[in-house]
Every structure is written in structure tokens, then in C-alpha cells.
Amino acid sequence: MAWIQLKFDYKNPDADSLSDYLMELGALAVTFLDAEDKPILEPKPGETPLWEHLVVLALFEADIDTNSIDTAIQSHQFAQHIGDQYEWEIIRDQDWERSWMDNFKPMQFGQRVWIVPSWCEAPEPDAVNIKLDPGLAFGTGTHATTALCLQWLDGSDLTGKTVIDYGCGSGILAIAALLLGAEKVYAVDIDPQAIEATKQNLQRNGINSNRLVLGLPEQVELPQTDILVANILAEPLRQLAESIANSVQVGGNLVLSGLLETQAAELNSLYSQWFEMDDAKVQEDWARLSGTKKS
User: Fold this and answer.
1) What is the pLDDT of residues 133-149, one digit of tens each?
2) pLDDT of 48 higher than 80
3) Per the UniProt entry, what are the Gene Ontology biological process annotations, in alphabetical order (predicted)?
């Protein structure tokens, strides 16, 4: 059996209406992909955020009249938002789940940390292996900002340290810190969905919940910590700068990411009021800042 798939660029945040229209035209499934590799961080509770520049995949039965679909779409108001990429392709029958799973392999960060999907064997059984499956949100290590933070944690001695994961998402950084020897981790996020995702990933990795305090920011009293990691966005990093700085004890470490390379200098200067800041570390146009709290 075969299907036929329509693929096109779409630059409009109102993707839900487009999806409804494609389903009315006979689409069996509609998938949105990010065309610019922009992460979704900290969506509001109950919100389903979408990127502004999408790649749309609409799956139809193979005998659909593609000409009539083309005419309907091109004559609709959506047409003004469709980019140059517009094509049909035959999709052959195959084991879709296996095909999807094959796209995800264990990934190494630094010297010790591996992210290992549940269906894969750990390449290095004695390494720090985090069991984490790819999902729709919150980070699985594939984005540069998460990778930069994991690399910093991997290169640091966390033994006996207290760590705050500010904007924990999937809990990947909190889990990494615990497996790398942190004594206690405080993980907070403004999205209740992220809290649930972190709980599930803690269970998947068999981590004792007594070592982690998890909740919404208003639910968790944060101590002055040895290390604070905040992989969020540039604007909240600006707005929360003083609060974040006050949460790190003298001599403690700060790690910030979720910001573009073009935003690094400004934030480095802002946080230098409280920290001896290091040079920014850049990967794929994204930056990581780090520093040590001044006395």
C-alpha cells in the first residue's frame, strides 16, 4: 500500500486553521515541522505553541486527485503564506515506527554523558547514561542549548554539590546533575507539563526522588546554591537577572543558555555585576554563558 504526501513551507502562526482545512480536503494526517530549528521553551500552561515558519506535511490516500487539492489550496487565503517549496511525493508502505526510531541514536555529550533512547543499548554501560526518549517538547539533548549545558555539567565536579535547574523542561539537566554526583537538585519550571515530564523521566532513570525538589517556582523555596543552570530564553534571563544572581552563593557557578550568539555580549555584561564571567561558548549560533559568583 502507498500514500501520497504534500509538503510545503508555511509562514503563518495560525496553523490550526490550516490543519482543519487540509483535513476537510481529505488529509489523513497533518504534521508540522519547525523550518528554522527554533526551540519551544516554557510554553504557558495549556498552550500549544507553534513556530512561525513551518514545513507542513499532509498525508493523503494515493488515489486522491492532487490537481483538485492544488487548486483548492492555491485559491484559498492560505496561499499567500505558502513558500516556494511545494511538492507531492509517494510514500511507500513500511514499518513507520521502526523508521522513526531509527532516526534517533544514543548521543554523547562531553566525556561521560550519554542520552540513550529506551530502545537502544547504551554504547558505554559504565558511562553516565540518561534514558530519555524523543518527544514533542522540553528537550532531549538534540538542541545546541541543551548540549552546551550538558557539556558544562560533564566537565565539572558536581560531587556533593547543590544544583538549581531553572526552567527544567524534560528534567534532562537535573537528571544529568544527579547522575554526575550532585547531592541535591532543585528543579523548577513555569509549565505544569514540564513538571510531569520531569517526574516521568526521573522514574525512567530510577532516580531517588529524595534527592530532587521539583515544582513550579512559587512552590519551591530555592536555597543559595553551588550551581545554577538556566536554559531558558534571553528575555527572562534579563528580567530575572538579579533573582538568579541572588540564588548563587559566593564562589558558586552560573550557567546560562537558550540565547543566541548575538545576545551573548549584552547578557555577559549584565551578569558581570555579580559574576566573573567566562567567554561565551557557541554552538550552531547558540551561546552558553558561565561565571563564578563574586565575593
Assistant:
1) 765 334 555 688 899 99
2) no
3) methylation
Q: What is the CATH number of domain 2-93?
A: 3.30.70.260
Place of cell 509517494: 90
Residue 213 to residue 210: CA distance in whole angstroms: 7
- Asked whether 21 and 81 are in contact (CB, 8 A), the reply is no
Dist CA 102 CA 291 (whole Å):
39
The full set of domain ranges for the chain reads: 2-93, 133-293
- 189 labelled binding-site residue: yes
Q: Which three cell numbers stand for residue 50?
A: 507553534
Residues 92/2, Cβ–Cβ less than 8 Å: yes
**CATH superfamily to which 133-293 belongs:** Vaccinia Virus protein VP39 (3.40.50.150)
SS3 257: strand
231 labeled binding residue: yes
Note whether 113 and 153 are within 8 A (CB): yes
pTM to 2 decimal places: 0.68
The answer to whether the annotation marks 146 as part of a ligand binding site is yes
